[in-house]
Design goal:
The structure holds 2 protein chains of 2 kinds. In chain A, about 25% of the residues lie in helices and about 25% in strands. In chain A, the strands form 3 sheets. In chain A, strands 1-12-3-10-6-5 form a 6-stranded antiparallel beta sheet. In chain A, strands 2-11-4-7 form a 4-stranded antiparallel beta sheet, with helices on one face. Chain A is globular. Chain A starts with a helix and ends with a helix. Helix content of chain B is about 10%, strand content about 25%. Chain B is globular and about 40 Å long. The two termini of chain B are about 30 Å apart. Classes of the chains: A alpha+beta, B alpha+beta. Chains A and B meet through α3 and α7 of A and α1 and α2 of B.
Amino acid sequence: MLGAPEFRARGSGRTHAEHPIDALPLVRALQSSADMSWEEEIIGGAHWSGVLRRGSLLRLTARGDDANVAALFYSREQPLERYNMADTLKAQHTAHLTTGCVCYSDMGRILCSIVADTCGWHDPICGLTDDAAIAARYGATSFQQQRNARYVSGQQAMLVELGKYGLGERDLVANINFFSKLLVDDDGRMRLATGHSRAGQYVDLRFEMDTIVLLHAGPHPLAEGSVYAPPGIGLTMSRAPLMAEDDVCRMRCPENARGFVNTERYHAA
Amino acid sequence: VNAVTPLAAMTDTVVPAGEPWMGVVRAGATIRIVDLEGNQAVDTLFYNARDTAEHYSAQTTIQAQRSIYLTTGSVLLTNRGRALLRIEQDDCGRHDTLGGACSSESNTVRYALEKRHMHSCRDSFLLALARHPLTKEGSLTKRDLPSNINFFMNVPVTPAGGLRFADGISAAGRAVELRALMDALVLISNCPQLNNPCNAYNPTPVRVLIREDA
């Protein structure tokens, strides 16, 4: 096929005068990079990755109710060192993440810390959606039919982002689902709390190591309903304030104090 | 594709505490693990023996069964969503798959910086991967250590979202038996942890039996 019709229509009969190049966003971007900050939007269903340096702060803001964002963390210096669900849960005696919790690597160090959280509960247990689960719940889609509105599974999203760093299936470990609350009863049965997160809620991650961050703004694997409409996620990166003596993450438990010592030793020059 | 050769595999062996063990359970065969003296955590991973990039996935498994505990009827799924083994018999009633394996590095965080020297499951896993004829020469490495199963270990999650390492609910002679639904490579660390009640502060041997006649 030569030239998709809608593309021709959009490009024809318009002049530059009608659509002057708006330089303001570019100027704003340049200004913000000068003071070490940036903003970006992950639209609902999309995936993203980037490197967050030690000392940077990343705010994830839910752009709609019942958001979910799957997240994985890898050391930028040696990606074989990666987020470890079990060590994160065991060290902090918790099955949910919120302010004061840190995300441990499998080497006893802290990749990032949750220094603020207006949502209150993030799920570190339940994992990613896969292609079969997405198709079964929301219906089969393809790029050919739906273009960029197709439904991408969490597993597919992570494999694509991993590949950009020379990583792959062997590196895909248990993830965090931010903004989702997983309830477990005494018999071990799991249920996703409904109406948990609200538009505008945010979680602040302070990076303690140079970290490859993978994110997917897709539905939680236990989400109810058959309408695929995951909210977008706002990203705001800034420089984190220096850690205070009474830092909420360091003071949470003696385990975290030792985790910070391990992390500081790693960076000792 | 990294594959191991699934040789005939009748096995009846005792794995002392602090030792790893590797073997193959062919499709249709059973693997039985016996907690000989009681309350002994057995950290275990399974791989597709014909393509070891496909392995047990704790998340896929608990998501599919909507429950965090493994017991009779649990189907262990791979990271590709396929059935790897099924638990056919369980005297214990509950096995953990969230607590992961201990490591010398996580021991420094959990207990004390001075505990780095103590033996750990991940050290056992790494030594087995480095030395065992099935996997030596780097075919499987630390990259290939996802979240594992802890047979006979009790790690309750509370409704308030807490996580505890509770006293064991296993006892001497209790066993768990699984049937392989594809040729499975088995990697076991019989846990040497001395700092919490997962081994009742006294790590003990376990028995591993693989049978093809069942």
